[in-house]
Each structure stands twice: as structure tokens, then as C-alpha cells.
Design brief:
The structure is a homotetramer of 346-residue chains.
Chain A lengths: L1 E6 L4 H11 L4 E6 L9 H4 L16 H7 L2 E4 L5 H5 L2 H6 L1 E4 L9 H8 L13 E2 L2 H9 L3 E3 L3 H16 L8 E6 L14 H4 L4 E2 L7 H13 L6 E6 L6 E8 L6 H12 L5 E3 L17 E8 L4 E8 L3 H15 L16
Parallel strand pairs in A: 1-2, 1-3, 3-4, 4-6, 5-6, 7-9, 11-12
Antiparallel strand pairs in A: 7-10, 8-9, 10-13, 12-13
Helix pairs in contact in A: 1-12, 7-12, 8-10
Chain lengths: 346, 346, 346, 346
């Protein structure tokens, strides 16, 4: 049994990790870390876990924790993992960080977009960006995984085949993304109250959202060119789900059939990326609760653009599910172990 | 492997059966029956099943079906199962009927409340009411299971311990129930459109809802007295979930502690009924996607009444999950097989 | 022009007062009071008022305020109005208190259920309970109005005709009520976050909710008997609306037609109470944004009970609209002035 | 009093017209036309109108209707108005068509995108596109108004100032739009059921939506160049509201301040277009139930693009409200008459 510890287990992503790991036959959760609910029963914070999780929430002492477990998940705000991680920790446990601390290779870019000083830049280089579909082999050998952001995962997987194929202008990419409200976290803020979110939609972080450089970096690797994009997230009145609608200029004449072939080839071996039939638009309801990303593409001949679409559950493939997928790779398990639950509808 | 067939697989309950059975290690679905989508790919009706279910929808020929499978689930409107079932069928397969056809022992009561003629009253007597927590032993030996209704399951399990203990006046019981909209089915009706249901709540079927005699019959068995109740269902703007708030007059002085002891004793061996801690009200969000029923009770000394509360997922414990629980009993499997998925939140 | 001041203008009820008064041809709002947003533009707190309200939020100084206006609305938490009101204030302005401070005539009952000491019990006697349909004449002559609670307004108007007619057992009344989330206020609490409320329903305050004695007191006046009731509120995933489903034992044989006649007579002169046609259940969507209460009744001959139902908008008839209705009476205006906006659907 | 008739009064837009006209002091509705509910009480179709509208639904006989009223609103599917209108009708009444029949000047474009043959192309030329902010003077003299589509209204008003100023590349415009579900109409379709729409978001009509040529035509007029755009609508789980996020390449260096000045100048006289303060993103909740469009703009210097945003209520400014605004202009009334209701929040 792999012994796991979760720092930040009482946020939405942390709780989703608990849900998934409870159904994973090779893992035992040994540590439910929480800043806000120390010494309280985990099941009193999340009543869905009543009688399923008897544990009490503990603190966030990573040095102690790494003596007791094999893998640590940090589902915490930016800056915490980088302030806790150390050579001693990494020599004892695998660390899968769900925050952005180790996602961006250029520390200046990180510090500029996030507005905080990086606490352990010495580990950035060795950290592996945990997008399994792209970095599978590197992940298997890593000690420290930077679990990708929710928007970047969905954006990247929607665009990746065409970026890699060199068919789109990497300076023309526009990503218009829409997220359910769990992405905003469980903090008590007026803006996230039911009556403020319900029956409304808005853009936020326009031209300034922190996931922009992460998407740009990964698209640049994939295309071998510098990607400069517009990324606009929106808040949608629903609990879960991210939908990406991305636009790019085609750099040469290509038919929809040719483009579909590129996507099929890119994802034919992937178990969690479902390239949909022609004409079927991804919808977040069809992936809810699962680790799948549904992707499709449409060529607009009138405008010589391509519209790339993706839908996934922000808490699963966009956070906890992808973290478990990374864990499976780190420990030599089948990549899909514990992650094959079908989407829940309605 | 148990071979299963589903008649009515393209309704909400049928699709939930598919979701649950896909995760059941001892079952293989051999037949996706549907009246509306014959010859269409199942995954084109429910895109969540894309790449998970390659099958094509077939018709509803029970005679043919029973040659190919070990168990048939009928997740169809009232009247269909009773018109299809036969001695030949029952001699070959187990039938688990999710409709109301075999739930009510008195055929006149059935015909009066449902307004249709029963097509095979000869099987009513042998059919076992599939409330596993009460009829576990009988279920194991049955050929034909009447899977309980969603409202009756939640209402009954909320009230059962006090009915059985003889502590409440069985003519004073009032059940005020609230259901998510999946309970209304997938038929295309104006009343179930998004804009008609969203941002509203209403009662319906006041004093006339068909689940009334089913609840009364089961409560009468449990208490040994004739139960005559008020049952009022309400439609709530959410996908899943049933909440029951039930009221009854206490017939003798009893403390909340004594009553809690009765519930604890009644459910201490049950894996799917969670009797909550004192003061914690059941909420549908804590059981969503799971087979759990959360139950609690409160004594109001001012009015000498007891308030009994239950929450469950209408599609799982209220339909497909309970059907699989019955199947497990019918085939000698552990009762919880395939049903231990934790509730999905948020 | 009547000059109005609002203390607590940045809560949901306060903002609804602003919306309604902006459309009232005889009123000018002179004072937007707020504890949390002093010196901020009102329209920056509620962007719907951009370009409609240029004012800046002021504090809650009732002594100063009463020099500048003719009527003060206090849309504040319990205890504030009673701590601010004085003979000086009441000699200068009319006060309409949307909190519970002056609703309950017995100060011990108030202090027991609300758990706070009453700051100005000397004004309780003269305060008039502002349920216009019942106390219309007294209201016209009052200085201090206790604007009724949201649940009590809907509960009382649903039950009132039968209570007054002496046809129901006043110790058998059970009120099962359901409210949208705006009733929980605009405070930043985890329990009211979008993801916590959405896709769920729960009871709360079971047997202990503070609106219980208010409903009992008014029903006792109406019936001339001591009413002792069960009141159970529920939180519903929608912004606005209260639905009441109330049950009572009939004390004599009476037909549905006779009971309908009693309701018709009770409400035939009322412009804001709509007694629906036989068989039509009230739904909150049909009253949203308006001052109407939709009421209906159903006799259940099987149980000798009557089911009384009401639906209204908790922020309008349950708070701000009723406050304006009271203001109209206080100042000799037509009772419906500024309140005839049709319900907004969908 | 202006006598009005509504053909298609039992759809969502038709009902919204009724709601608005009930509050319009100069209008009396004489004819509630409906195809589906002839001879039924209007208030039985929309219970919010109980006791407010005593009328019975009539048919859709435009020749008869034009004898009885001064203005006819056609809130019907594409093709109906053009099949009913005639010189006789237009000689007697003003016609405001909420469908697309007369919006597009080139009949081939109309027939290609809508897939139907135009029934009265002879009236296309004289029809005035009823976007009051642009065509105010022409509207005043018209007989036949083509009321703009919901998406085009919001898209155009978001982009118009920069299109007119010649600052954006009219072939680079991408409109990513999001709409509440009332935009899908009140027809009974599985895809619009509560459980299908709730908790999900999807794109639809990608690269093929019929509003594309309407937006292009109006942007071409405004800019004096041929606009060729990408338009992608999305379905959002909410009743009302449209949000537009539009992107375009800047054709010269310009600061955000300069661009803000252009918007301010464009809309400073407009009562229904609110240009928001810098940094404030439009949100549909802030315009719900009102005729306002909230607009804002953001320059992204990294990508040399501008992001233009707009929010409005699709049923008001996007349909019924704009129709009444047009009616006011046609009859010489103040343009805002009956349309100044503040947005309803929450």
C-alpha cells in the first residue's frame, strides 16, 4: 500500500483527492492536513465522508509528514509548497504539488504574474510538469511533480495537436475559457456566495490571469515557437467543469478531415482524452466526476481559423484526478488505476 | 460474470444503472434496451459513455432478452413490466422491476392510484418488495423484485425505527418530501424545461401522489397498524437528491436520547443507512452519486412531535443503486459490491 | 416627496428597498446607510445601480438621520433598531423596522428565542405589526412599524382564513417552509457559498427557528386560541422565493368548496393576495420580483386534514415590498403605489 | 392609448413584452396571439399574470388584427412575419418584427443562413433595423421594424465604437458569446430540459450560427469595411442574460485611455448603454430584468488586441425591451417610457 498525505485536504481539490483515493485499491491516506480545521473530524467538515473517513485533521508539517508517508499532495494556495519543500523532504517522499509553485520554469515570470517571491527556486529545474499525456516518461522518474493548472490542462490539450503539427499561428491563439465555481475555492468571500454567482456569468482577470504564462510556456514547448496568447476566464453558475473555446489562425490550407486525423493520431493511445465525433461539441456535463477530457475541433473556412474545444472536470482532470494519474506513474502503477469511474450524469 | 439486460436504459434511472454496472466487477451489460433510440449508439444518447459503451440500443423484447442474460432490469414507465413478464421469463432470469407494477400487494389499490389495469396480477404475491434493509432474506430467494420507489425508500427509512418501535401515531404521519428534477424523467415536457424549473419550487400531486399507498403499506407492515399519511412531494431546482421531512405525534413520553438509541440499534448493521450525529440535518449534497441514505431525528417537546429527516440520491439508493443492491443479494454477492463509491461533492 | 433613509441599505433586503423606491413616484431616498461600506459609492457595492444611484454610503446615525428624512427603514440584524430608536426619533420620523425587534409583544419570548436582551422594550407596545392585510387601520396611525418576517408573512397568509374561521385545530398546525438563499443574507460564510448551496436542499433550525413564536402569536390573534406549531424552514438552491406547505387537522366536516369560499371571502378585497384557482399549486417562479402572495388550499378527505400553500418573493412581500406597502399606509398614499410591477418570469 | 397586438405572446419574448407593456402607461394590449394556446386563458399559460391579464389567447390572423390595433409585435419563429405582412397591413399598423425576417438586407444571405425561402422580399428594403442607438432617426419614420437579434445587439454595442473609429481590423473580430437558456425558447425539447442544461456549459452552432451574418452586416456598416467574424454562442445554466467577450487586433498603437474616451463619447447620450468604470467587467446579474447594456473594454498590450465586453438581458434589451424602445420612437413617445425599471438583483 502506498501511504499518502494530503496538505490542504479541506479545500475542494483536497476533498476530491480524498474521494478518489478512497476508491484507489493501492493507496491508504495517512494524513489529512488542514490549516483551518486542525483537530476537527474530517467528516465534520465534509459530511459526505461520514463513516467513510474517521480521521481528525492534522496540521501542515511537511518535515514530520514525510516520515510517515510515501507521497505528499499539496493542495494549497500558491507559495506554501515552495516554502515547505526541502532536500530532506524530497529524499524521503514523492511530492505532487497542485499549486503553481513549480509549473513555470522562469522564476521571474512566476514572480511577476503571481506577485510573490519564490521560496525555493533551486527545485524548479528538477520539477516535472505533470501533464501525463506529454511528459509521461519524465514523470516516472521525478521526485517533485508540478501538477498542471485546471485551465492550462484543458486549454493545452485542446490546442496541443495543432500546435505540435505547426498548423496554427502561435501568436494568434485566443483562449476563451469558462469554469464552474469550485475553481474559486472554498474561502468565505461575498463574491462567491450563492446569490452572487447564481444566474450570472462574467469574465475576470482579463489579460492578467496567472494561468496565461503557464499555457504559453507549454504551447511554446509543443510548437517550438514562442506562443503569445489571450486568455480570458469566465465564472459560470455551476459547481464543476471547465470549457475551453480556443481560436487560432491556420497557417496553411488544410481540410477539417486532415485536422481530425492529426487529433486522432495525437490522442489514439490516450485513455483520458476523448476526441469526439465530427460535429459533436464538448459539454461539461458529459465529463463531470471523471478524469476525461473531451476534445473536438472545427475549421471555419470563411475566416481561415480553427476553433478548438475542450471540456473536463476542473476538480478531477484539472486537479485531483491528474494528481492521482501522476502518482500512478511515479509508483509504477497502471496509469488509470482508481481513475476509471464513468462521468456522473445528470 | 453475471450477464445483465436493461429495458429502459435511456431514461435517467436506466443510464444510472449503466454507470453503476460499468464499475461492478462481476457484471457485464449485454442488452441496452430502449423504446425511443433503437439502433442508435448508446453513447450518442449519453455522451458521457463515449468510448465506454460501444453498444447499440436494442428493443424491449423480454422473451428474447431472457435467453441472453441472467438478470433483467426494467427501468420503464408503470405498466410495461407487468405486461411483459411471464412464467417463462421468470423461469430463466431474475427480474428487477424499477417501476411500481409489483410494489403494492393489493391490486385494487394499485389500479385506483395508478389508473391502469394490472396486466399480470398473478405475480404480485410472489414479488418481493426490494427494500434490502427490511426484506434482505426474502430477496435472496426471489425471482421477481419490486424495486422500491424513490420517495418511499427515503420516507420509509426515515420513519421505520419509530414505526417499528410503536412510538408514533401511525395516523398522524405527515411526509413533506422534496426531489431534484431527474425524478421527473427525461421526457420532453414544457413543465420540465430548464427555465420552468430553475429558480422555483412547488408542491405537486398534493393528496393524490401515487407513492402514498406504497409508503402507507410499508409503514403498516413495520408498525403492525394501519398507517394513513399525508404525503406531499415538491420539485426542487437541482438534478439529484430527495429530502424527506416527516412529522408524527409521539404516543408516549420519550427523550431524544431514547429515540436516538432506537435509530442506532435499527441501523447499526446497515452499510447504506447513516444515522447522523445529534443536531446534524441531512442534506442531499452529502449523498449525491452514492447509495447512502442519511437519516436523523429531532424531538420537539413543545409540540410532542418528532421530526424525522432523510436524504438520499433519488437515482442511486432511490433507483439504480438499490436495484444493484438487490441484484447482489439475488446472486449471492456481497451486498455492497459495486456500490461503495463515496458521495461526489460539490 | 417623502424623504426616505435606509439603515442597512447594502444587504439584500436593503438593496431591494432601493430598487422598489427608485420606481416609487412619491419617494426620494436621501440616505443610504451601511455599516460595511461607509464612504463607498452605493453603485460600487451593487453594480445594477450604476448610473441610477450616484450616492455614497453613510453610517447608521439614526438621530442625525431623522433630521433629514420623513421615514426610516431599518433593514439590519436583530437588536440594532431597538438600540437606536428613541422618543426623539419617533417624534420626528416614521420608523419601519424590517428586523424582528418589535414583532413579538412578549419581551421574554423575544429574548428567549433570539438570545439577546431587548434594548427598548418601552416601544414594543405601541409598535404595530405591519401585516397590512390584517392591521391596515392600525398601521395608518402608527409611528413604529414592525415589518413582519418573511416566513411569518407567507405562513400566516396561507393559514389565516381557516384560523379565523375556527375550522382547524390550532395545536395541529405544521408549517414546512422552503426559502431561496437570499434569505440567508449577504454575509460571507462558507455555508452560503455557491458550491455549498447549489444542488442541495436541507432543513435547518428544526424546532428552534426564531420565526416560530412570531407565527404562533399572529395565528393566536387570528384564531382566538393558543396556536402551538411545528415550523421547519429549508434552504433551496434559488435566489428568491418562499414556499409554505402547511398542514392542519380539520375540526369539523367541511368540503373543499366551503373552504374555498372562506379563502375567497378573506382575500377578495386584497390586491396582493391571489387566491388561485382550484387545483393550481403556488410556485415561487410566478411571484418573483413582485409583491404578490399566491395562496391555495386542498382538503384531504382520507386524513381529515387540510393542506394550505403559499408562495411569495421573500425580498418583496417578505421584506422590502411589504415595508413600502406599510409606508404607503403611513403616509396616506394608495396602498399599491410603486408596488404593481408584475412578476418577472423566467 | 396605443393599442397593441402581440403575435407569439406565449413564448418567452412574447411574455416579456406583456410584462413590460403592462407597466407602460401609454399602451393597452388588445390581442394576445398564440399558435399553441388558442382559446386558453393567457394567465393559465403564465400564472405570473393571474389577475393581471384576464384575456384569452387568440390566433395569429394579422389581417384581422391590424383592424383593431395600432402596433403589432411579432414574436414568432423565422418565416412567420414575412409570410403574413402585406401592403394592407403596413398601411394600417406599425409592425415590429422580433424575428430575423427583415434584419438582413441581402435576401440570398438570409436564405442561405436560415435555410428558408423569404416570403416577402419586397419589404426588406424599407424595413429599418431597429437598433435605436444607431438608427434612431430612421426608426421614427418607419412602418416596419426589424428588431435586432439578442446576440447581435450585445455583440454590436460592445464593438461599435471601435469599429466606427476604425481602430480594429474588421477581419480579426472574434465574438465569444454566452447566453441564458430562455434564448432557446419554450419548445419542449430534451436538450432544453432542466437536467440537461443544469450544471453544464457548451458551445453550439460553431461557425454556423445564424446571427453571424447579422453581426457582420451591422459591423460592416459601422466600420465602412467588410467585417468577417467568428461568432461562437454558448449555452449557460441560467434563465436570462447574454455576455459577449469579443477580441480584435488593434490596427494602430492606442492607449486604454484613448479607447475609453472613444466609448465614452459614443455612449454618453445613451440612456440604456452603460459604459462601466475602468477595470469593472460586465456581469449579466447586474442588468437582469432591465433594458440596460453594460459595456467595457480592455487593451492587452502583450498581444496588441482589445477585449470588448458586453452584458444585457436577452429578453429585454435583446428582445422585448428593445421592441418597446422602437415602439416609443415610432409613436413619438420618450424613448425610455416604460423601460426604466432598475435591474433586479439577486
Amino acid at each position: 500500500m502506498i501511504r499518502a498525505g494530503i496538505i490542504g485536504s479541506t479545500g475542494y481539490a483536497g476533498q476530491e483527492l480524498v474521494r478518489i483515493l478512497l476508491g484507489h485499491k493501492d493507496v491508504e491516506i495517512k494524513w489529512y492536513g488542514s490549516r483551518s480545521y486542525i483537530d476537527q473530524a474530517y467528516a465534520s467538515v465534509f459530511q459526505n465522508m461520514f463513516q467513510l473517513v474517521p480521521d481528525i485533521c492534522k496540521g501542515e508539517d511537511l518535515e514530520q509528514l514525510c516520515e510517515e508517508v510515501d507521497v505528499v499532495f499539496t493542495a494549497t494556495p500558491q507559495g506554501l509548497c515552495s516554502s515547505l519543500v526541502s532536500e530532506n523532504v524530497l529524499s524521503k517522499v514523492k511530492v505532487i504539488d497542485l499549486s503553481a509553485d513549480f509549473r513555470i520554469k522562469d522564476v521571474d515570470t512566476y514572480e511577476k504574474w503571481y506577485g510573490i517571491k519564490h521560496q525555493s527556486p533551486q527545485f524548479i529545474k528538477e520539477a516535472v510538469y505533470g501533464l501525463c499525456e506529454v511528459n509521461r516518461e519524465k514523470i516516472k522518474k521525478a521526485r517533485l511533480i508540478a501538477n498542471p493548472g485546471c485551465y492550462p490542462t484543458c486549454s493545452f490539450l485542446s490546442i496541443y495537436p495543432l500546435a505540435k503539427a505547426g498548423l496554427i499561428d502561435m501568436k494568434s491563439v485566443i483562449v476563451d475559457a469558462k469554469s464552474g465555481t469550485s475553481g474559486a475555492g472554498r474561502g468565505a468571500k461575498v463574491a462567491n456566495l450563492y446569490c452572487e454567482v447564481n444566474e450570472s456569468i462574467k469574465a475576470y482577470g482579463v489579460a492578467t490571469h496567472r494561468h496565461t504564462p503557464e499555457i504559453e510556456e507549454q504551447l511554446s514547448y509543443a510548437s517550438g515557437q514562442e506562443a503569445v496568447i489571450n486568455f480570458t476566464p469566465h465564472l459560470v453558475p455551476m459547481n464543476r467543469g471547465i470549457l475551453v473555446t480556443a481560436y487560432a489562425n491556420l497557417v496553411k490550407d488544410v481540410t477539417e478531415e486532415e485536422i481530425r486525423k492529426i487529433y486522432e493520431d495525437a490522442y489514439k493511445e490516450e485513455q483520458f482524452v476523448r476526441f469526439l465525433n465530427a460535429g459533436v461539441c464538448p459539454e461539461t456535463r458529459w465529463v463531470e466526476g471523471s478524469n476525461y477530457v473531451d476534445v473536438n475541433v472545427k475549421v471555419d473556412e470563411r475566416t481561415h481559423r480553427v476553433i478548438m474545444m475542450g471540456a473536463m472536470d476542473n476538480l478531477v482532470k484539472g486537479a485531483a484526478g491528474q494528481a492521482v494519474q501522476n502518482m500512478n506513474l511515479l509508483f509504477g502503477l497502471p496509469e488509470t488505476e482508481g481513475l476509471l469511474m464513468p462521468p456522473v450524469f445528470p
